[in-house]
Protein: DNA binding protein
Organism: Solanum tuberosum
Amino acid sequence: MDCSLSLSSGEVLNVNVSRMICWERKSSKIFLQRLDKSGGYKSKLEYATYFSEVVAEGILKEKEDFVPQLAELIKLGFILKFDEAAIEFLMKTENLQIFLEDEEFLSSAFTSE
């Protein structure tokens, strides 16, 4: 999709926007475009942003008010490559914890085959 943005300087910026990730709710499937690692930090941040928004919206479909906060945490986790020690520190600094029910859900939802 092509978009035009008018900047305060009067300059018009034309950009091509493409959604990299889509969650099909009816079939409970996530479709991911492969991350282009050659695009540097910008590509990684775009991908992390789309990924986190789609996942947060899918998880919290009945609690839309909390989607932005969860999306930000997921995005930061993605940027940190979901490193366990870094995530533990992040959760500690944000005063968050994972409850037993959450661990059980995550274990059942993401079992390794």
